[in-house]
Every structure is written in structure tokens, then in C-alpha cells.
Amino acid sequence: MQKIGIIGGGIRGHMYAKSLQGFPGADVRAVSDLSQETARKTADTFGFAAYTDHRRMLEEVDLDAVIVATPDFAHRDPAVDAAERGLHLLIEKPLATTAQDAAAIEAAVRKAGVECMVGFENRWNPAVRRLQEVAAGGELGQVLTQNILLSNTWYVPTRMLSWAARSSPAWFLMSHTVDVATWVNGRTVASVDARGSRGQLAARGVDTWDVVHALLTFDDGTTANLTSTWVLPDSMPSLVDFQLQAVGDRSAVQVNLHEQSVRHAAPEGLRFPGLLGDEIDGRLQGPPTWMVQHFVACLNEGRPVGPGLRAGRAVTDVVLAVHESLATGRTVRPATHAA
User: Is 195 helix (H, G, I), strand (E, B) or coil?
Assistant: First the structure.
């Protein structure tokens, strides 16, 4: 039985608590959030302790593992503090948004000898997993190129995320697609060329990139084109648009996760209700749920967790390169680290 604490009680922290409610081998005992109201709401919903200081939670609650579900830029302190107490970690993607924070988390985890999973939930997305299996099994042949689009409507940066100005479509969305592209290709990103635009979100009080395009070139010369935007109209049938194409020298695969096979013509307009986050028989389903349950199952069974630090650092390095290329207009080589 894994005794678990959650740091960050907002949308994701609440979802993780619900995902583990009644899951065999999981005992969520406490949540910490800087907002007392948020911490209390999540704690009261699931019947565990609430804190506004994660360090106090770590001191007072008997735990085996911690889920870090804080905003993109705020992973370092809770992850390092938990690792130093010998607690296993599930850290939301991206691992960190600076090289310094990523290095500090890695150093703390390796020194403590604890398990660390980075939350690349699309590795539990059935369609993405199928694509990766087709590639790994050789059915695509050499993966020549990929085109991956992952975007949100205005709602996400202007109303859902209070901290959107401290993130970007690259950190929030492209961290997913960089991981998918490298997982499918199985190669290392050798260079990044990125372009984008900004100004529309800034005019609404969120000073970050509106649109980001990134061309990844792998170490074998093959490529992946990634696009992420935060300015899709709110009239879109879904607040997430996610489409993938992988082209090999033997075959090609296309995935459209925008509709998820369901169209609902409602009085307020056409909607695409998502199928990957619903409840079945009162239990939450979908990639993030399956991911956190896998994390707990691995700990209980004494198996290594993953994707881990290597994947987490690689994605952070690539997205840092994306931002550097956006700023300079130049081709950027991502940093590399020992495994």
C-alpha cells in the first residue's frame, strides 16, 4: 500500500486524487496547495488532510510517494523537498522549465535513490500507443517525418490557467508532442528551428506566445513538425485539437483525437465530447488516470517507473531550444546529458 501526498490541489491534483480513489494499493493521505480554498476543497471531497505549505505536509504526514501537480514553472521545490525525504515522485510534465531546475530535481532524485516518473500521459493514450507500437514493430519502416498538432482554444490561457503568462503553448502543449515524437521515432533530437507569433494573448493580459511552430531534426536526419497554439476560437467543438501523422518508408499512420468518434449537435452548437476522461461505473478513465495508477502499481510491485528523468530532461532541453530559437531566429542544438 502506497501512502501518497499530492502537491498542487487544482485541476490536475483533484483529478489524480479521484483517479486513485478506491484504487488497490493507493492511500492518498494529504494535499497541499498555496490556496487554502483549493486545498480544502480537494481534501474535503476525498476525505484527507489539507495543507497550504508542502514542507509542513511532508513533515507531518507519513508518506511513501508524492505527486507534484503544481504549475509548469513550480516543480523544483516540491520535487527536491520530497526526494530529500526519500519519497518517490510523479512529476507533471514538463519536468521543469529551466535547465537549473531540471538539474536540481535530477540531482536530488539520484542522490536519494527514489523512483521518479514524469507525467507524459499520452504514453497511455490508446491511439498514440498504437502509433508507437506500429513504429517500434517495424511496420512504418524508417520513420521519415511526423506532423503533430496540439492546440487549445482561448479558454485555456485566459480562463483555465491563472498562470498562463508564466508558461506558453510550447511548455504546456509541446512538451506532450516532443515526447510523443521522440517516443515514436526512437531517436534523439539533434536540432530545433522554431518560429511563432505573439501579441493577441498579450492584448488580453496574458503576455506569452500565441502560436509556436517547431521543426525537430533527429540525429538520423529525419524530422517532426510540431504546431501548438493557444488562440483557437472558443466556438471550436472541443477546447483541444490533437492530430498526428507519422510517415515511414513502408507505411503511414494518421490519428485524429479531435473528434474522438463522437459528434453532439447540442442547442448551443456542435460539440465533440471527449471519451478519454469520462467515468465508467463510477470510476474515472483515461490516459492521466491510467498513468497515475500505473505509477502506484509499479511502486507496489517493486518495478521501475517510467518515463523517467532521462525522458523528462530530454523534453525540457528540446522545449528550451524551441524558446531559444523563437527568440533568436536561429537553429539551436538542445543540450545533452548522460543517461
Answer: strand
Q: What is the mean pLDDT of residues 197-205?
A: 98
Residue 30 to residue 65: CA distance in whole angstroms:
11
Cis-peptide into 287, omega within 30 deg = no
Q: Which three cell numbers stand for residue 252?
A: 503511414
Largest CA distance in the chain: 57
Residue 153: DSSP 8-state = B
Cβ atoms < 10 Å from Cβ of 133: 11
C-alpha cell belonging to residue 28: 492518498
Query: By the 8 A CB rule, do 28 and 4 touch?
Result: yes
**DSSP H or E stretch at residue 91:** strand 88-92
Residue 331 binned pLDDT confidence (cut-offs 50, 70, 90): very high
- Is the model's pTM score more than 0.90? yes
Q: How many residues does the chain have?
A: 339
Torsion from C-alpha of 66, 68, 74, 79, nearest 10 degrees:
30
Q: What angle do CA 255, 20, 39 make, to 5 degrees?
A: 105
Residue 274 has pLDDT above 80, yes or no: no
Pairing of strands 252-256, 240-248: antiparallel
Residue tagged 525522458 (cell numbers): 311
Residue 225 in contact with residue 147, Cβ under 8 Å?
Answer: yes
Which has the closest alpha carbon to 125: 285, 251, 273, 281? 285
**Residue (of 234, 232, 225, 240) closest to 286 by Cα position:** 240
Task: Dump pLDDT digits (tens) for 70-79.
Answer: 999 999 999 9
Burial category of 266 from C-beta neighbours within 10 Å (exposed 0-12, middle 13-18, buried 19 and up): exposed
What does the buried/exposed string (b/e) look like for 48-68 if buried means 16 or more CB atoms within 10 Å of the residue's CB? bebbbebeebbeebebbbbbb
pLDDT tens digit sequence for 60-69: 999 999 999 9
- End-to-end, the C-alpha distance of the chain in Å comes to 30
What confidence tier does 165 reach under pLDDT thresholds 50, 70, 90?
A: very high
Beta bridge partners of 188: none
Contact 27, 3 (CB under 8 A): yes
- Residue 302 to residue 187: CA distance in whole angstroms: 29
